[in-house]
Amino acid sequence: MNLRKDFTDQADMLAYLREQFPDASGALSPFPGGRAAADQSLHSFNASRYAASRNYLNGTVSRLSPYLRHGVITLREVIVHFAGQNLPKFTQELAWRDYWQRVYAEIGDGIWQDREPSKTGTTYSTEMPIDLGHTGLACMDGFAVELESTGYLHNHARMWMAAYVVHWRRVRWQAGAQWFLQHLVDGDPASNNLSWQWVASTFSHKPYIFNRENLERYTEGRYCGTCPRRDDCPFQNSYENLNVQLFPMQVQP
Amino acid sequence: MKLIWVHADCLHRQSPAYLANPDSPSLFVWDDAELKRAGWSMKRIGFVYECLLDLPVTIRRGDPVIEMQKFAVETQCSSIVTMQSVDPHLQAQAAAMGAETFPIVPFVEIKGRVDLQRFSRYWCKVERALIGETA
Predict the structure, then answer these.
(1) What's the sign of the alpha-carbon dihedral A233, A239, A241, A243?
(2) Does the pLDDT of residue B4 top 80, yes or no?
(3) Is this model's pTM higher than 0.90 or not?
(4) Using an 8 Å Cβ cutoff, are A160 and A137 in contact?
(5) Which of A29, A128, A184 to mutate to test the interface with B (most CBs of B within 10 A)?
């Protein structure tokens, strides 16, 4: 049986998809699908602002990743679009995606296995914490809700969330990676899993962690001021102290 | 005539598979077993579905290999073509269909073998060509 393609609007499509895919949770993402939407993202992206602002949650990013993930637009088309504009940082970020794809081509399902031994000396749970979204930490709860309601997170928020799940909650990176892939509209097994491995230290020289100062700076205080746990913040520490606290069994090089 | 298998790694109207077979029918199959395994939320399904509405493609659900074989008989196509994917699951399905695979236009051409142990080693190989292109 052919599935429908004639919808009056998005609501009509969503009602139909709910009939066809009753196990799929939630609503639609704010990202519209299709090439016209990809072109809209491409043309509205002020790439000259990218390098200086991309690490801030309110910074200028392309929002092309869902379209790149599903081949609606190609990396080659994007780089050709920006030819001659002197965008070394944006070009390097496009190259990261190409790199992840090349690693995937080389190791296949090995992206689900540790690429290297973990450097943390930590034992991990295989289960995701059941309180994600309700931890009382305004930042992490905000990221979890945003992920599950929109299907998108800024890259910096993905790194903080992944570090929190793996290093503060001591959950195996595979569980977190699976969670992201269920929700991210740009969920790509290679980019996603290998980035989680980079955070976890199974595809990098050391675990990635952050502290409150870092998060507060790049979120421009969006969460910390009203956080119920602002006086009991697990990220409020120096990197040196956090490393000792989080990785007491870590073998020092 | 050839039948085009459209999969979720290449939802491009100008893909080499479409360009080489402009009059061919094409089919996308929602892989029920894979959806159940991966647990995709409606956000992901809806996004891909909207992308499919852009393409001259028929949409079905089930086992992609079986559905493609059935659709090939219905449309009197003698062979199947598709786009290359690095996903081993899609690769296995393409092989099971006996599909001819069109390569993806590479982001950057690399001569010789590239060491993928770290991004920095890959970047050393491609930086000059890529930065030169956007400079």
Answers:
(1) positive
(2) yes
(3) yes
(4) no
(5) A29
- Could you tell me how many residues make up chain A? 253
Q: Which residue has 């196990």 as its token pair?
A: A23
Question: Is B112 in the A-facing interface, judged by CB distances under 8 Å?
Answer: no
> Model confidence over B74-132: pLDDT tens digits?
999 999 999 999 999 999 999 999 999 999 999 999 988 899 999 999 999 999 999 88
Q: Does A89 touch chain B (CB under 8 A)?
A: no
At position A67, the amino acid (one-letter code) is: Y
The radius of gyration computed from the CA coordinates of chain B, to the nearest angstrom, equals: 17
Helix ranges (H only) for chain B are 16-20, 32-38, 42-53, 64-74, 88-97, 119-134
pLDDT at site B125: 94
| Measured distance CA(A7)–CA(A246) in Å, rounded | 52
User: What is the mean pLDDT of the segment spanning A174-185?
Assistant: 98
Question: Mean pLDDT across chain A, nearest whole number?
Answer: 96
Q: What ipTM was predicted for this assembly? A: 0.97
| Residue B135 in this model has a pLDDT that exceeds 90 | no
Distance of CA A27 to the CA centre of its chain: 19
Question: Least CB-CB distance to A88: which of B13, B49, B131?
Answer: B131
> What's phi and psi for B79, nearest 5 deg?
-155, 165
Q: How far apart are CA A177 and CA A194, in angstroms?
A: 9
Q: Is B34 touching A (CB cutoff 8 A)? A: no
Tell me which architecture the domain covering B2-102 has in CATH: 3-Layer(aba) Sandwich (3.40)
Q: Which domains does chain A have, with CATH numbers?
A: 10-109 (1.25.40.80), 138-246 (1.10.579.10)
Where are chain B's structural domains? 2-102, 107-135
